[in-house]
Amino acid sequence: MPRCLLLLLTAFALAACQPETEPASAPAKTEAADYYDNGGRDDVLSGGVRMIPISTPSGEFRVWTKRVGNSPHKKVLLLHGGPGATHEYFEAADSYFPGAGIEYYYYDQLESGRSDHPADSSLWNIPRFVSEVEQVRTALGLDQDNFFLLGHSWGGILAIEYALAHQDHLKGLIVSNMMASVPEYNRYAQEVLGPKMDPAVLKEIQALEAARDFQNPRYAQLVTENYYTEHVLRMPTEAWPDPVNRGMGGINYDIYLAMQGPSEFGIMEGALLEDWDRSRDLEQITVPTLVIGAEHDTMDPEYMKWMADQFPNGHYLYLPDGSHMAMYDDQERYFRGVIDFINSVDNDPE
Question: What is any one GO biological process for this UniProt entry (predicted)?
Answer without folding.
Answer: proteolysis
